[in-house]
Amino acid sequence: MAAFADDFLIGLREWLAIPSIGVDPAHHGDVAASAHWLAEALRRDGWPDVRVWDEGPALPAVYACWPAADPDAPTVLVYGHHDVQPVDPVEQWHHPPFEATLVGEELFGRGASDDKGQVAMHLLGLRAHLAATGAQRPAVTVKLFVEGEEESGSPHLTRLLDDHRDDLACDLVVFTDTPLYGRDAPTVCTGQRGVYGAEVVFTGGTSDVHSGRSGGGVPNPATAIARLVAALHDEDGRVRLRDFYADVIEPTEAERADYAALPFDEAVWLANAGGAQGLAGEPGWSTLERVWVRPTAEVNGIHGGYTGPGLKTIVPARASVKLSFRLVPDQRPELVAEALREFVADHTPPGLHAEVIARGDGAPPYAVDISHPAVGAVRDALQAAFDQPVRFSRTGGSGPAALLHGWLGVPVVYLGATLPDDRIHAPNERVVVPLLLRGAEAAALLWRLLPERLS
Ligand SMILES: [Zn+2]
């Protein structure tokens, strides 16, 4: 591994210098440049089949395949993304976000952790795998699929999957966009929550009215929104949408035991949770369980009426709330959407008009069965690379794992080597380089373990 480490860093820093901010149309040229950089790097490494998919409407994605020597060996598809988040507020960065800067073991730069660092880890992993086996070809057929729209919510991913069904066919997806639990507590992630978001708008008249002349005689949309929000949870913090918990699958005892065994420092956790001053959540579940395996309803923002300086005595014409629901297996975004519409109808007072505006279709949740042999193989590979016990974890965020699982019809396992406090999506994103090297070691070993484990 050490033999390739210098090379690895030089390459990664070059790639991180390309500002591939997918959500900003002004940077779409950079997203293309980033895709071509990766394609070149793969060709340099000897990948025999490398393509940039840039026929639109999706931003350029990179596909590569390195067939196994044994035609009967399993095929693994590694998923990652090369688009990055915007960098504002740029003045809060200690180093320029697109001049990757190495400080000790940490490499600072946008995309260092999410997700270019982890994709580069797989390039290194394959080089190490071939070096370790002394073979010209890997022990499994390795395909790499690196999209350019993940930070935009992967709007054209289904189209890419459909257009390239044969290329992407595989026996297993290795999803590489999630962190370890901690530097001294390596974990194998087994699932991500889904998400559904919507805005609820209550409208009364066509304009704000005088609270003296009309107040008391007309319904107040802001009061109604406040009542709706207050009704969303019961006293215990459980969500009151109809059948919200009906499809929830609880984690196994083995998973819960692993979560309980992970080191948990409340003060540190709260500091990383925006400096929150105390824990809250559903009784009967630990904090990790609340954010990993329990569904939520969150108020993202409430808007309505006059909030400027001084007083303005009105009854507002309109008020609204933005909501997001994090979902766990087997909840379905479309059923939550339906239950929300019903809930809003039940909480719309006479004289007000209600509207529910969905923010896209949402993303379904995903979790892999922990008894699947590929999960055991990832765990063993990480255990060997990190030389310590590896427990199960999940992540509370959302991604396209369920979509990949649904379209490709194969299980998705997670291999990541970054940290939850890498400040992804925030100023001063970093990655801990020795962890990426261990992740590459784990990938190199995983390709050796899989033929037997999946047979
Ligand atoms: Zn990511």
Automatic annotation (TrEMBL):
GO molecular function (one): metal ion binding
Alphabetical keyword list: Hydrolase, Metal-binding, Protease
UniProt superkingdom: Bacteria
Signal sequence annotation: none
Alphabetical list of InterPro entries matching this protein: Cyt/Met_Dipeptidase, Peptidase_M20, Peptidase_M20_dimer
Gene Ontology BP term (one): proteolysis
UniProt xrefs under Pfam families: M20_dimer, Peptidase_M20
Peptidase M20 dimerisation domain: residues covered: 190-350
NCBIfam families in the record: PRK09104.1
UniProt protein name: Acetylornithine deacetylase/succinyl-diaminopimelate desuccinylase-like protein
Source species: Saccharothrix carnea
Higher taxonomy: Bacteria, Bacillati, Actinomycetota, Actinomycetes, Pseudonocardiales
